[in-house]
Amino acid sequence: EGFGYGIISLGIGTLYIQADNEYQRFYNQNNVIADNIISDVCRAGIVLGFEEGTMVHNNRIHSIEGSDDAAGIMAGGFGRSNFDGYNNTGLQIDGNEISGISADDMAFGIRVEQDRVAFDAPGGGQVYFPDSPEGTVVSNNVVWGISSNDGDAALSSIALFTRRDMSQPTMWDM
Fold first, then answer.
1. pLDDT tens, 149-173?
2. What pTM was computed for the model?
3. 143: Cβ–Cβ under 8 A, 6 or more apart, which residues?
4. Closest CA to 65 of 96, 93, 105, 34
5. Which residues contact 165 (CB under 8 A, 6 or more apart)?
């Protein structure tokens, strides 16, 4: 209670390994975030980035109030003009109860946004991450009470976004 975020799990991401002359994923693997009660935080109950095989289930998340945006669960995203954003693979978001999410601009029960990241390959061209299928499963969640004081706000119980064209801005740049 009373923080900006309830639980944050962020892996390192993609690193260039000079000895191997290649990029490799350094994602958190197989975490289980379960059976938590998260309330009265100001942006998100659970935030995930650079995760692989993480399970988020049976959590009770309520009373999240953000100034610009807020969500019960935020997975990936956060891309800006100077940062490509987070991505995840093999997430399972299941059996969570989310309510009372409010923000001035955008409010979500569950927001999954996959930002594809491009790196200059050592031999020329580019290497893209994630370099495996996304495999995110969102199921059996109960979401209600998504609101805003602004009539133009974007509200969604469950929103799935992807950014694969690197020349296009993310929703956060608009």
1. 888 889 999 999 876 554 544 444 4
2. 0.89
3. 72, 98, 99, 109, 110, 157, 158
4. 105
5. none
